[in-house]
Amino acid sequence: KEGYRLNSDKQTCRDLDECSMISNLCQYRCINIPGSYKCVCPSGFTIERGGHCQDIDECHLGIHNCPVNNICVNLQGAFRCHPTNCPKGYEKFGNNRCQLNARWCQKHQNDTNLRCTVHKPVKYIYSFISLPARMNIPTEI
User: Fold this and answer.
1) Which of 10, 44, 46, 140 is the most buried (most CB within 10 A)?
2) Where are the beta strands (DSSP E) in the chain?
3) SMART domains in the record, alphabetically (predicted)?
């Protein structure tokens, strides 16, 4: 039977430990199971064909717990919540935007230090770029 070796008594079999017999079966960790083996990845990763670990993009999948005024930034094996606080006179607009608040502008139109001018941008947009790459994962994280 595959994954087993016949004992010297020619009647019973013993499990082969593929993990110790074959190096690099798995990118992260190999676990011997009766008749076979299983590859596992650390938290924040999923197993792919060939025993490779692929980062789970919690931000793209929407499985993060970032507050409303934060942007989710994917990291290898994790994610980070980055606050996007709007400057004075701006209000939150969507997940990663701040838009000039017209009511605030009208209220402060006579205050020379705070008034809205044509020189102020209408919107701020916060963007982050994730650059995923195949990388080796250390056996101890």
Assistant:
1) 44
2) 4-6, 13-15, 29-33, 36-40, 45-47, 53-55, 70-75, 78-83, 90-92, 97-100, 123-125
3) EGF (SM00181), EGF_CA (SM00179)
Residue 23 CA to residue 108 CA, distance in Å, equals 69
pLDDT computed for residue 110 by the predictor: 62
How far apart (Å, rounded) are the C-alpha atoms in residues 71 and 127? 8
- Segment 16-50, tens digit of pLDDT: 999 999 988 999 999 999 999 999 999 999 999 98
Return the amino acid letter for 91: E
The domain defined by 1-55 carries CATH number 2.10.25: yes
Domain residue limits, the chain: 1-55, 56-83, 86-128
Q: pTM for the complete prediction?
A: 0.60
Instruction: Say if residue 78 is exposed, middle or buried (CB neighbours under 10 Å; 0-12, 13-18, 19+).
Output: middle
Q: Which neighbouring-strand residues pair with 90?
A: 100
Half-sphere exposure of 87 (CA within 13 A, CB side): 12
